[in-house]
Amino acid sequence: MLKTMKNIDSYTHVRGESLFVDDIILRQDALFGLCFDSPCAHGKIKSVDYSKAEALDGVEKIFTYKDVLGENQIGGIIPDEPLWAEDEVHFWGQPIAFIVAESEAIAKKARALITIDIEELPVITTAKEAKEKESFINAPRSFKLGDAASVFSDCDYVYEGETFSNGQEHLYLETQGCYAIPQENGTIKIISSTQGPTQVQKTAAKVLGIPMHKIEVDVIRLGGGFGGKEDQATPWAVMAAVAVQSLNRPVKYILNRHDDLRMTGKRHPYSSFYKIGLTKDLKIKAFEVEFLQNSGAAADLSPAIAERTLFHATNSYFIPNVSSTVFSCKTNLPPNTAFRGFGGPQGMFVIESAIADAADQIGVNRRHIQEANLLAENDEFSYGQIATQVEARNSWFTAKEKFDFDQMEEEVIAFNKANKRFKKGVSLMPIAFGISFTNTQMNHARALIHIYQDGSVGVSTGAVEMGQSVNTKMLQVAESVLGISASKIKLETTNTTRVANTSPSAASSTADLNGKAVEMACNALIDRLTKLASKTLSCEENTIAIHDDFVFVDGKKSSLSWEDLIIQAMAHRVALSENAHYATPKIHFDKTKERGHPFAYHVYGTAITTVTVDCLRGRYEIDAVKIVHDFGKSMNIGIDLGQVEGALAQGIGWMTMEEIAYGADGRLLSNALSTYKVPDVFSGPKTIETIPLETEGHELAIKKSKAVGEPPLMYGIGVYFAIQQAVKEFNPNYKLEFHSPFTPEKVLMGLYQKEG
Ligand code: LUZ
Ligand code: MOS
Per residue in 251-290, pLDDT tens? Predict the structure, then answer.
């Protein structure tokens, strides 16, 4: 039986009792903030007239960069992003000022009264244009394995092409927001909907010009993050803190959906160019790729995301000669940011496209090329890491066997023979996703555990609960190590005064990193309690075990319950609190050589996707996605299956219907849920079936239960190629295009594309 446990938040979620920032009862003197943001994508600010807004009854103060006592700078990796624009604006929606008023309605009225005079400057919206104009965030990065350039001449087939994958809106149910409250002596408490409490604390301290210990950040839970709150929850929290510093009154700021869509960055669109070389037996011998990342107007996390694109440029294939380069292109879009997969999906879409192109031109099914090149044990990734515990082939062949792929394929062929108007397509999509922050120094976490004198336990970690159920997993770890029932354990909010210097909850690594810290802290407590129990019961330490809320001696339940033991601990002045620090061992990366062993391990899996295209209308339905996924030894299969399904839906949305559109002037056109569509129950796959691959798991995964947040998103890429196959089936003249999302409009164009 696979282990499972309900999300510990499910009861309060269903009853609407779970607390989010917007649910907090405000102090009576609380004020409300609202951003005034740039009405154009690039320009020089000549003047702004705040006088009418300031004169409005109920407006307390309007803040600009002039009110910053520390540094007007929020850039995380590169200091290139002001909190509030000074004399230039670089994207539509860039914050210029912060209105603080007695109510949200008054703030909104005031915003409409502000007038601005901007001298507009040329706008760049695409990465290609930025590359032409040499507008970059930083220097390009390149990974190299073997010597691709010289190998192409030995290849039997060589193909070149171009791909594009669009951005993606995070669409967390809970929009960005925060509530900042003044405390004593210039200290400020910020309750923030952030994946990175320390990032908020550090940036607030810098902008306010005060030490970090004067900022306390508390996170209850998030109504979704998906990467959108890794860095981009920070500005709003800092703005509110600046206002609190000046006014000494609480300030709340929750972005409405329109403002959130307009002002925040998204998944990076990529334009990419590939060259792929194969031998007659379909072995990929060489792969060259250039990625143009549309980074937006400031760095944000773009350099790290660009790096992960390179790490995933060959997906789960072994290619002996690889040359990959990524340019972070500076444009006039809102700074694009982390989004589940973090550049990995963009990289994987390109190799899958190159394979589809080659297969089409050679005249074989795509899957033959995929199958001929799957990673095997001890293969080398293009960044020098040697692949071990590889499940690429295992998941591929298990999926083919368990879901009877041959039968599925035959049915598709038969269906296509029998039907003119409807065509089916089927694709296989293998994944390999590296687990760890690619920036080695971020791979650490801490846990602080208190056992209270009645035996109940409080667990604090750096993990942020954002719907992924990390708190449930932390509770499971504590429960199993302490040997007590779940009802005795409570997960505390994520608070910078209890757990400091945290990495953001991101990179699929939160449960691994924080779980290992919980495990260490609980083990230390159990060591002490075991010593105490051996004294109390006058027996050898190694005969003692604590489980099922009791002390056991030689496997027999003693008279000493968990509660009795804790009373003894108090009587003997034994410490009942423990803090532990975990840092992933064995990982390293040398950026000067672009080689190393950056990932603790990889997650593997294979999805088989079947679709039916309506060749009259261009509409399509996803019949089924059948997945064999490498969970390792899942510690909570219910939650992990939920992550697979959610990630898959998000991946499918990115590949099929979520179409972000900016005008040539840099204005977001898909600026509401009427123009930006995400998958719903009708457009999702009719069937999703996930079979856990039976594997040993990995020692660096918490309880050998592998990270699950991001990897399954990339199964969604399979849908693109299944649709493409169906289109080709209907229209043999269709020239393969790799331009996602594959919206029904594009499908229709493909269906009726003429030769040449
Ligand atoms: N965030 C980050 C991430 O800062 N570094 C990473 O490597 C990463 N990977 C995936 C998602 N978020
Ligand atoms: Mo991330 S894309 O915040 O794991």
Answer: 999 999 999 999 999 999 999 999 999 999 999 999 999 9
Q: Is the CB of 168 under 6 A from ligand 2?
A: no
The span from the CA of 490 to the CA of 140, in Å, is 46
How far apart are the CA of 733 and the centre of ligand 2, in A? 40
Residue 713 DSSP symbol: G
Q: Is the CB of 195 under 6 A from ligand 2?
A: yes
> 294-352, pLDDT tens digit by residue?
999 999 999 999 999 999 999 999 999 999 999 999 999 999 999 999 999 999 999 99
Catalytically active residues, by annotation:
710
Fold of the domain built from segment(s) 10-121+171-263:
Aldehyde Oxidoreductase; domain 3 (3.90.1170)
Q: For residue 594, what are the contacts with CB-CB under 8 A and spacing of at least 6?
A: 141, 142, 143, 144, 383
CATH 3.30.365.10 maps onto the chain at 270-438+591-751, 444-583
Residues of the chain with pLDDT > 90, as a percent, come to: 99
pTM (2 d.p.): 0.98
Level-2 CATH architecture, domain 444-583:
2-Layer Sandwich (3.30)
Name residue, tokens 């900016």: 662
Beta-carbon count within 10 A of 185 CB: 6
Q: Whose CA is nearest to atom 11 of ligand 1?
A: 507
The CATH class given to the 270-438+591-751 domain equals alpha beta
Element (H, E) at 531: helix 510-537
Please give the Cα distance from 135 to 133 (Å, whole number): 5
Residues of the chain with CATH 3.90.1170.50: 10-121+171-263
The best mutation among 168, 170, 230, 512 to test binding of ligand 2, ranked by most ligand atoms within 8 Å of the C-beta, falls on 230
Per the document, the length of the chain is 756
> Side chain identity at 341, as an amino acid letter?
G
Which among 649, 607, 647, 643 is positioned nearest to 628, based on CA atoms? Answer: 607
Is the CB of 437 inside a 6 Å radius of any atom of ligand 2?
no
Look at residue 638 and give its three-state secondary structure: helix
Number of the ligand closest to the Cα of 228: 2
Q: Ligand 1 — pocket residues by CB below 6 A?
A: 227, 230, 301, 304, 308, 338, 342, 437-439, 506-507
Ligand 2 contact via 676 beta carbon (within 6 Å): no
Alpha helices by DSSP H, listed for 538-636, are 562-571
